[in-house]
Write the structure tokens for this entry.
Amino acid sequence: MPKIAKTDIELLKTWTLSPAATLGSSVRAKGILQEIQSRLSGTTKKSLVLEGRDLTLAMPASDKTAFLTAVAVVSKAMKDVETLPVIPREIRDILTIKTSERHRWLADGRLPSAGTRTVRLNGRARQITFHVFDPKIVEDLLDRGIVDEWRGEDAEAKAEKRRRAAHQRNLNRSVKKATKGPKKPDRNPDDPAPQLRGWEDFDVDGLLR
């Protein structure tokens, strides 16, 4: 709740986020709060807070005009809150997945993108662009429990990749061994030295004397 003395708070308005809006995620609820706050003026946005699934706007009676303006903005935003795109940190929390899984399933098409969004980091000049997701599709994936199935598919694909790699290594070793040919046995030093053909005739001619 904003730091206003309780005796000054006379203007209150509360909106409740539906399960279809939050998809059971506190991270998603906070994201919705931040999205609506971004539509309010700088002096008013801090007056809107999240408590559980309730958005509460609390302002002193002296700010009635600003309060009514903020109520109109929040009420309008609440009409479309269930269709707000799901951002990366939200989908990770909703589906309980890792960043690497999100990237992999996005790349192979299992996790369809609803487009991209570019934002500027707070206090920085750098911008970042990321994929967002359709809340209806995310809800369907959640209801079907498809994540466990995808993880099983990934585990099987990884195991098959290891088997193929092992087979290829064995094949390469076999080809290399066949190319070298049979290895010649080492000569036993106790065996008699091999005799050269025609040595006797050479010796008879006296050429060694």
Notes: Residues 1-82 form a domain with the Gyrase A; domain 2 fold (CATH 3.30.1360). The chain has a mean pLDDT of 86.
